[in-house]
Amino acid sequence: MPTTVPATPVDLDDAEAVARADRGGVLRSAALAGAQIRATAAAVSEGALSRLDGARPRAVVIVAPSGPARRAAGLLSSLVASAGVPVVVAPATPPWVGPLDVVVVAGDDAGDPVLARSVDSAVRRRADVVVTVPDEGPVADAGAGRVLALPPRVRVLDIHGFARHVATMTAVLAAVDPAFAPGDLADVADVVDAESARHHASIEVFRNPAKSLASRVAGRRVLVTGDGVAATELARHGASVLLRTAGVVAAASELADAVAVVHEFGALDAPGSGGAAQDYDPLFHDDQIDGPRPTEPVRILTVSIDPDDSSVRRRVAVLGEVDVVRADDLSGDAAPELRPTPEFGPVGPGAIAPSGGEAATTVRHCLVLAARLEAAAAYVQLAGGR
């Protein structure tokens, strides 16, 4: 019979122990978000999308059935309401696609039959097709020599492909609609790298935003909320990363929903679930006599890209103890030290807006916060000895 090896918790302040525990390379994979963006920038500079320059398609259709690609598509679609080109997100190539459209087929599984059929269908209908799936297997065969290929150049775990998908989709949208220019993707990569540097295993918990989040999430039920449409899409990615990376069952919702629950029920805990009891002893607890076992309060993370920090603080005040996950410095330089607070978690000294328009700023914020959430999930996994 197989034996079960007990998990050995890891002290996150012990950099050597963290490195030894990371046998699957999850922390290294999470740190390669900037490298993925830089590789995409290099491919674009080499002319990977030159066929689209100056094109004005009827629509850009993003085919992303699942995973990080689906969440990246949801994020981009939330940012293009004012774009000059309609953007449609679909699980497969729609039947109305034609020569006037651009189709982006995005995913991480080169053997996915849905992606392969979507590529073949879009090509047969003479649309301009961009494929961001790894260049191998049935998907590559379906589009061989007939598509614009932007396969991954930096290999990471599938769950960490979000940054690449956001970068490639953003590059396609910028090619067909200059008004949606994210700025220089290489500069965006520098900003994300600066964020990843803050998550290094050698940096202590109180100065490391990813470790700080991990220490507060570990062993708790988690609700990840977003303070706007784009932030909510990012919250969904954070919840998925916690599940896939660390096995943490986390819910995702709009911040407004969490606030409404508190107003209606007084707390986020379900009726009858019980709160954490000081005299609870699992050895002598009897469910029939003592009632339901007490549970730890829900740990709430609020992802925010609102430049007005005071506005976010006012909105989350009703929720009690909350960690507000914000990108406070987007200059690309070494970030200032965080100032943890018991109510709001890590809060920096003030937002610094990068050059570029509103879309560029939002994309940078989201990629920085995605890198932090992915690193935090990695630390949760390692801290639990998984």
List keywords for this structure.
386 residues; Rossmann fold; 5-stranded parallel sheet; disordered N terminus; alpha/beta; 14 helices
Please describe what this structure looks like:
The chain has about 375 residues and is an alpha/beta fold. It has 2 domains: about 30-180, Glucose-6-phosphate isomerase like protein, domain 1 (Rossmann fold), CATH 3.40.50.10490; about 190-385, Rossmann fold (3-Layer(aba) Sandwich). Helices cover about 40% and strands about 10% of the residues. It is built from 14 helices and 11 strands. The protein has helices at about 15-20, 25-30, 35-45, 65-75, 115-125, 135-145, 160-175, 185-195, 210-215, 230-245, 255-265, 285-290, 310-315, 360-385, and strands at about 60-65, 85-90, 100-105, 130, 150, 220-225, 250-255, 300-305, 320-325, 340, 345. The strands form 3 sheets. The protein has a 5-stranded parallel sheet with strand order 2-1-3-4-5, sandwiched between helices. Strand 4, helix 6 (about 135-145) and strand 5 (about 150) form a beta-alpha-beta unit. Helix 3 (about 35-45) packs antiparallel against helix 8 (about 185-195), helix 4 (about 65-75) packs across helix 7 and helix 9 crosses helix 14. The protein is globular, with a radius of gyration of 22 Å. The model is unreliable at about 1-5, about 270-275 and about 330-355 (pLDDT under 50).
